[in-house]
Design a protein that fits this description.
Number of helices: 3
Radius of gyration: 25 Å
CATH class: Mainly Alpha
Structural class: mainly alpha
CATH architecture: Up-down Bundle
Order of helices and strands: HHH
Helix content: 55-70%
Number of domains: 1
CATH topology: Methane Monooxygenase Hydroxylase, Chain G, domain 1
């Protein structure tokens, strides 16, 4: 029984070690020529004027979160649509319940003004 999990154990060990090996090789092989010009802040090819750190509105973050939620919705509905022939009426009801919950969330975000781009 333990021999069945050997492949998974090897996979986990390789997955944990591989990023460290890649980062270590990149550190050893990178060009090491520091230059004051390389450490300057670069923004669209122009030198920055004033403070380079600006505060973004929280609404942009909320807008992005709403997008991610509905993008994930598509990811969850795609396998259901592919397997539509094999699932029964109960799965159809669950899909409509899922879409209903997301519709309530969309209406809530809309009424709160989270979808208004300002």
């Amino acid at each position: 029984m333990l021999s069945d999990y050997n492949f998974i154990g090897i996979f986990v060990v390789v997955a944990l070690i591989f990023p460290f090996i890649a980062l270590g090789l990149a550190y050893l092989l990178r060009p090491k020529k520091p230059n004051p010009v390389k450490t300057e802040t670069y923004e669209c090819g122009l030198e920055t004027i004033g403070e380079t750190w600006v505060r973004f509105r929280a609404q942009y973050y909320i807008y992005a979160l709403v997008f991610v939620v509905f993008d994930i919705e598509a990811a969850f509905l795609f396998p259901w649509a592919v397997a539509y022939d094999q699932v029964g009426l109960w799965a159809l009801a669950e899909a409509f319940l899922f879409l209903g919950i997301l519709t309530v969330g969309l209406v809530y975000a809309w009424r709160k003004g989270a979808l208004r781009w300002q």
